[in-house]
Design brief:
The chain is mostly helical and about 130 residues long. It has one helix and no strands. Component of the nexin-dynein regulatory complex (N-DRC).
């Protein structure tokens, strides 16, 4: 009887151990599947994020290229305006010099005219008669 009781106790203990083993196995399997699902979801999320970042980068690079092109065009337009203004400034300077030189010639011409008029008058000649 004692031996049977011990066998029965051992069988019950074995049954509990087997159940514990099954419970642990089920729990670990469940944890593994949960972790696998979470990691799969995280990978998908990160892949979507990478994809979005690539799109953003492509748009940013396109905008940068466009901005560089516009700035280059603006710079060329400004260079043309500057060259035009320099040309106008040079023309104004030359015009001013020509005007000053003309005034000098007119003054000198008037002086010479008056001098020759006086010389003709000394000889009794009228400059208007000539």
């Amino acid at each position: 009887a004692d031996l049977r009781r011990r066998v029965r106790d051992m069988e019950q203990k074995l049954q509990r151990e087997r159940q514990d083993h099954r419970d642990i196995y089920w729990d670990l399997s469940h944890q593994y599947k949960t972790m696998q699902t979470e990691l799969t979801n995280k990978v998908k999320k990160l892949e979507q994020e990478v994809s979005q970042l690539k799109e953003d980068l492509a748009l940013s690079q396109e905008e940068l290229s466009k901005e560089k092109s516009e700035r280059k065009q603006e710079e060329q337009e400004k260079d043309v305006i500057i060259a035009d203004l320099r040309q106008k400034l040079d023309n104004m300077y030359l015009s001013s010099q020509l005007s000053a030189t003309r005034q000098g010639w007119e003054d000198e011409s008037a002086t010479l005219h008056q001098k020759y008029k006086e010389l003709l008058s000394e000889f009794g000649l009228n400059a208007l008669d000539l």
